[in-house]
Amino acid sequence: MEDLAVMVRRAANAVELAQAATVLSSRNEILSFLTTHIHEIIPCDKAAMNQCDLATGEVMVTAMDDQPTSFHIPLSLNHRDTPLPLLSHFESTRRLEGARLSDIAPARWRDTASYSEVYRPMGAEHQAAIVLEWHEPIVWGVAMNRSTVDFTESDITLLNILGSIVRPSLAAYIDRQRILDLLATNGSQRSLITFGGDWQHLLDVPEVAGDLLAHTDYASSVPGFNHRLGELARSLKPLIPRRVDGVEFTRLPQTTAGTGTLLIERVSQSNPLTNRQREILEFVNRGLSTKEIARSLGISRRTVETHIQNTYSRLQVNNRVQAVNRARTRSTPI
Questions:
Q1: Residue 105: pLDDT above 70?
Q2: pTM score, two decimals?
Q3: What is the arithmetic mean of pLDDT over 52-71?
Q4: CB atoms near residue 192 (< 10 Å)
């Protein structure tokens, strides 16, 4: 059994590594950084960043000492004798926590095509992996290989420490990217306002933002606009919007200390819900729990909860029953 003092020191190093990764600004930077440095806390022969497309069965493997290489899973994902055991484990269980090949590999695994065509050429007699982001049908994670000694329970614990710290940053990256995509396609309906000094100073108000705010209580031409808008931003919880006079305000997760961003969006009164919100509301209408909805959509429970809270805000209701009834009253398809 590993000495407690050694485990505490390794855990502290894992926390430090994960926190260093979270200050990076993109998914690729975060995953590349972890792949490059993960051997410092969990010794391994090779670590790789994996991007798996569950729809096509393609895996893009980027090892810390190689150029990116792509290969296809040798057997169909839908008709398999576990072609890649760890990937199949994550796909079937929807679990994100770290796992070892030795715990889930089938009997006589070394007689399978996955061993002869994939694992043996890599020298991966032993493997451990963790899912860091799941955005259906794409899964991103980190895998580590060893040719001799298997990974330990302590190694898996350290993987889970890394995952618990890094995943929120990756989720925030996805939210920011979606918002940027929306702005690119619907610039006249959405805009961003940037603040500095912990929401004390307004740094940038694009012209379109002024147009969107012109008929609200937060019109850019009124005295004290900066102060009032900053107060509104500070009062919001990240990613939980508030509607004022047909305009919705959403505070985005902060990526730089002291600087904040507020998304403003004109809301359609006839159909205020996004496609994802309507999809989740349909599951709510069927009586599914948050956990069941998350499993059905391949997203986290927290993401489902955020969508539900946003739906309440958009429909101006307080619970699930009211949300379903209000959507029907407004002829919003669910």
A1: yes
A2: 0.54
A3: 69
A4: 18
